[in-house]
From TrEMBL:
Pfam families: DUF6436 (PF20029). Signal peptide: none annotated. Residues 46-189 form the DUF6436 domain. It comes from the Bacteria. The keyword Membrane applies. The chain crosses the membrane at residues 12-32. This is DUF6436 domain-containing protein. The keyword Transmembrane helix applies. Keywords: Membrane, Transmembrane, Transmembrane helix.
Length: 189
């Protein structure tokens, strides 16, 4: 008890500042978790049930197509965009094309080196429930995967759902996966 009474006003001020900082960090963390940590979708659907009407550029035969759905200002984009840039490097020179779909009515562009991705228009029938999201079409123009890049707060090659799908498609194997049950960092579309 003597120790507490011997602390100077300066020490009490330091302790109070640290306590306020810790409380602010906890509040910010809880707010972020409440705003952005959510399931990819409120329902589980398989690809046959998914009403995702793709533009002709995707639904016709060609390369394997990876479509990045995003919205400017979403704090969840950062890790996914870094991962997307890694995917472009990994699949460079292979039969894989990359596209982007920005949320309708939003302003902004992807950062380099993603700013040259071909843009597709979003419609009510061609939109995810949240973003960032990814759709992958096989070389026959069939939707092979639709869902998040990964589960959890950040996305990278270690926890990604994307590389296994693209690798199987490039190997000529069939894939049909909808991953709507993953929980991660998403912004409502």
């Amino acid at each position: 008890m003597r120790f507490i009474t011997r602390l100077s006003a300066r020490h009490w001020l330091t302790v109070a500042a640290i306590a306020v900082w810790l409380l602010a960090m906890l509040t910010a963390f809880l707010w972020f978790q409440q705003q952005f940590i959510r399931p990819f979708s409120d329902t589980s659907v398989n690809l046959a049930q998914l009403q995702l009407h793709a533009p002709k550029a995707l639904s016709s035969p060609g390369a394997v197509r990876v479509v990045h759905f995003w919205q400017p200002g979403c704090p969840c984009n950062v890790a996914n965009q870094a991962h997307l840039a890694e995917l472009r490097v990994k699949y460079q020179g292979q039969n894989v094309q990359f596209y982007q779909v920005r949320q309708p009515g939003s302003q902004g562009q992807l950062p380099p080196p993603l700013d040259d991705l071909a843009a597709l228009e979003s419609t009510a029938q061609f939109a995810p429930p949240v973003s960032p999201a990814v759709g992958i079409w096989d070389s026959q123009g069939r939707l092979a995967y639709f869902g998040p890049y990964s589960e959890g707060m950040v996305c990278n090659a270690a926890n990604s759902f994307i590389e296994p799908v693209v690798d199987r498609l490039l190997a000529g194997k069939s894939v049909s996966i909808s991953n709507a049950l993953a929980v991660g960092c998403f912004c409502r579309w």
